[in-house]
């Protein structure tokens, strides 16, 4: 990401328009927030961390992983995020992830549009709710 941002700056200066990156991010593909595969100023970091440093906005694609994370999620996900369906929980995870500004999702049926639109009235998950997903099975002492 840093290399591409540097190329954009070299070509167009500070007024370059390299401001957005679309990447897959969902409950089954969390690498954007967990895999340190970016190098910036000699530091290894995740693409989420690098995008923040470089002022690049992240847009999540594959938010429901073609429906693979829209059902049969482990109970701890429901306990952490609440909501009334696994699809809603999966979208809530993506839209609540620090660094993600938009969660793209394809919908082929009108009822999916209505169900997913209900999240508009739900605040993103709190840090406490979000962190419960990653502290599963750990003692809270």
What this model shows, in words?
This protein has helices spanning 2-12, 31-34, 47-54, 75-81, 86-96, 110-117, 127-134; strands at 20-24, 38-40, 43-45, 57-61, 100-103. By secondary structure, the chain is α/β, with parallel strands linked by helices. The chain has one domain (2-134): TIM Barrel (Alpha-Beta Barrel), CATH 3.20.20. The strands form 2 sheets. The chain has a 3-stranded parallel beta sheet with strand order 1-4-5. The protein has a two-stranded antiparallel ribbon with strand order 2-3. A hairpin with a 2-residue loop joins strand 2 and strand 3. Helix 4 (75-81) packs antiparallel against helix 7. It starts with a helix and ends in a 7-residue tail after the last helix.
Helix-strand blueprint:
Elements: H1 2-12, E1 20-24, H2 31-34, E2 38-40, E3 43-45, H3 47-54, E4 57-61, H4 75-81, H5 86-96, E5 100-103, H6 110-117, H7 127-134
Parallel strand pairs: 1-4, 4-5
Antiparallel strand pairs: 2-3
Helix pairs in contact: 4-7
Summarize this entry quickly.
With 141 residues, the chain is an alpha/beta fold. It is built from seven helices and five strands; from the N terminus they run αβαββαβααβαα. 40% of the residues lie in helices and 14% in strands.
Q: How many helical stretches?
A: 7
Task: Measure the end-to-end span.
Answer: 39 Å
CATH topology: TIM Barrel
Q: Can you tell me the CATH superfamily? A: NADP-dependent oxidoreductase domain
Kindly provide the name of the CATH class. Answer: Alpha Beta
Structural class: alpha/beta
**Mean pLDDT across all amino acids:** 93
Which ranges are low-confidence, i.e. pLDDT below 50, for 5 or more consecutive residues? Answer: none
How many domain modules?
A: 1
Strand count:
5
Q: Could you give the order of the helices and strands?
A: HEHEEHEHHEHH
